[in-house]
């Protein structure tokens, strides 16, 4: 399944070092390959929504990929019955993905895990947030998967939190809006949106104002 | 081998008299002849965009990638680079290739990647019922320009020649035999090839008579001569009335992108390994 890795200017224009071992082993999962039974259908309608793969050239298969609504073989389809069937297949695939994600460490916590005040941040703000939180003795919650949002893990990471402060490098608080849709109440937002990243000292001062 | 059936179960929804049938029948004939010559059809991938032309992949029973509007070239290039042994044939409309997707086309020509682009150039947006495209003539009255357009068309073949395309051809949907010949030559060409097909949209811009009066087949033309090709390409600018040359306009041998790209890779030495070795030496 295609994935999107979000990056930003701070990461792409900065130089960082990291402990490669702490990242763990990057496992390559086997592809759900076609078992050559029957005739090949690129979008075969399965229970979990995942269709078996094969790649051209395959002398036993014709592989038809289609960006338009399509039937199981990959021929464009406009009848409502097929459209509904395939839409539901994709929804099941989304559910299956969300379920699989529960087996991964999708939300990280840092600094003081017992504090009832927590910073919620994503992406490159992790570093400054952890440093500022350590000075203030508060918790940091850092989801590393944003979609499908790992709501259960986020709930666990936020257990005992009474004051949730969202720190983001955008003008509207995009993560705050996203988690809001899942019932997480963000008490305050600290945003920087002048095209530059937070410095630790600046963030520390901003947080002191919010925590007063 | 004459038993090869390239049909699918998809119902054809093109209008009666649509120029797309000529392209469909020509490409099927070419694929059959390739199969007869020993090319395994599992090594063929067709790519299409969005528009009436795009349905062609539903009507031919070989591997295909029905992509997005203006985006025929990127998946075609990706398929070629990842599996260089595949024959990749892209189909695109004039709105698709010369409008939204023209930057991809220019860069594919520039890098001379070995794909074939067949353009269903009917000079109108047919699927959306008749708006002007980059190759509609000046003053074209369409659904979005009831008073006529105020801008002249582009000459796509001139742009392609200037961009570095190594094979350029033109045919019409009233000339199946010629289309077959040009398609086959384009597909067999090693490098970026493009065939501009003056394909008639019978419903929204019926140009059959107009083309029939003006087209002629190239004779005694040397396609390896850049200046001759340029002159023939400039003879008709897709706007004013003049004779319209059909056939292989330009052909040149040049190194292909995927050939260079893949030979540039060193076996067993990934970039990670290189960095690791460098660090180990320094630290």
How would you describe this structure to a colleague?
The complex is a heterodimer of chains A (about 210) and B (about 280). Chain A is an alpha/beta fold. Chain A contains 6 helices and 6 strands, in the order αβαββαβαβαβα. Chain A has helices at about 10-15, 80-100, 125-135, 150-155, 175-180, 200-210, and strands at about 65, 105-110, 115-120, 140-145, 165-170, 190. In chain A, strands 2-4-3-5-6 form a 5-stranded mixed beta sheet, sandwiched between helices. In chain A, helix 5 (about 175-180) links the parallel strand 5 and strand 6 (about 190). Chain A starts with 8 loop residues before the first helix and ends with a helix. The model of chain A has no long low-confidence stretch (mean pLDDT about 95). By secondary structure, chain B is of the alpha/beta class. Chain B has 10 helices and 8 strands. In chain B, strands 2-1-3-4-6-5-8-7 form an 8-stranded mixed beta sheet, with helices on both faces. In chain B, strand 7, helix 8 (about 225-235) and strand 8 form a beta-alpha-beta unit. In chain B, helix 1 (about 20-35) packs across helix 6 (about 175-190) and helix 3 (about 95-100) packs across helix 4 (about 100-110). The longest helix of chain B is centred in the first third of the chain and has 17 residues, at about 20-35. The interface of A and B includes residues 55, 64 and 70 of A. Strand 1 (about 65) of chain A pairs parallel with strand 2 (about 65) of chain B.
């Amino acid at each position: 399944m295609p994935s999107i890795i979000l990056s930003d200017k701070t990461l792409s224009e900065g130089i960082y070092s990291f402990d490669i071992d702490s990242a763990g082993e990057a496992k390559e999962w086997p592809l759900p390959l076609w078992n050559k039974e029957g005739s090949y259908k690129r979008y075969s309608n399965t229970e979990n929504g995942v269709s078996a793969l094969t790649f051209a050239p395959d002398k036993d298969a014709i592989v038809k990929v289609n960006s338009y609504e399509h039937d199981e073989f990959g021929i464009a389809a406009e009848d409502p019955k097929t459209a509904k069937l395939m839409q539901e297949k994709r929804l099941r695939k989304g559910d299956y993905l969300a379920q699989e994600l529960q087996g991964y460490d999708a939300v990280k916590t840092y600094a003081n895990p017992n504090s009832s005040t927590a910073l919620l941040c994503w992406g490159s703000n992790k570093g400054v947030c952890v440093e500022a939180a350590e000075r203030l003795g508060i918790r940091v919650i850092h989801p590393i998967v944003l979609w499908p949002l790992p709501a259960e893990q986020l709930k666990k990471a936020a257990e005992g939190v009474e004051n949730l402060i969202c720190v983001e490098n955008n003008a509207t608080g995009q993560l705050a809006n996203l988690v809001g849709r899942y019932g997480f109440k963000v008490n305050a937002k600290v945003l920087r949106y002048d095209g530059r990243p937070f410095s630790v000292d600046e963030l520390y001062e901003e947080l002191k104002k919010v925590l007063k | 081998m004459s038993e090869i059936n390239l049909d699918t179960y998809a119902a054809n929804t093109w209008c009666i008299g649509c120029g797309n049938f000529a392209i469909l029948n020509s490409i099927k004939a070419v694929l059959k002849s390739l199969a007869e010559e020993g090319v395994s059809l599992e090594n063929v991938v067709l790519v299409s965009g969005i528009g009436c032309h795009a349905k062609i992949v539903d009507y031919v029973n070989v591997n295909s990638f029905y992509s997005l509007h203006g985006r025929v070239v990127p998946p075609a290039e990706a398929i070629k680079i990842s599996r260089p042994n595949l024959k990749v044939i892209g189909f695109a409309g004039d709105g698709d290739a010369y409008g939204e997707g023209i930057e991809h086309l220019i860069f594919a020509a520039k890098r001379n990647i070995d794909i074939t682009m067949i353009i269903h150039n009917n000079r109108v947006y047919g699927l959306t019922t008749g708006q002007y495209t980059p190759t509609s003539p000046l003053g074209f009255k369409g659904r979005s320009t009831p008073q006529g357009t105020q801008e002249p068309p582009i000459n796509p073949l001139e742009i392609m020649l200037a961009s570095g395309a190594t094979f350029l051809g033109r045919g019409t949907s009233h000339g199946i035999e010629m289309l077959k010949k040009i398609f086959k030559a384009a597909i067999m060409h090693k490098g970026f090839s493009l065939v501009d097909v003056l394909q008639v949209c019978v419903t929204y811009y019926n140009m059959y008579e107009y083309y029939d009066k003006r087209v002629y087949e190239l004779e005694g033309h040397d396609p390896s001569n850049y200046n001759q090709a340029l002159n023939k390409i400039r003879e008709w600018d897709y706007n004013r009335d003049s004779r319209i040359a059909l056939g292989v306009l330009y052909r040149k041998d040049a190194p292909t992108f995927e050939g260079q790209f893949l030979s540039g890779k060193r076996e067993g030495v990934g970039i990670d390994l290189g960095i690791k070795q460098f660090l180990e030496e320094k630290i």
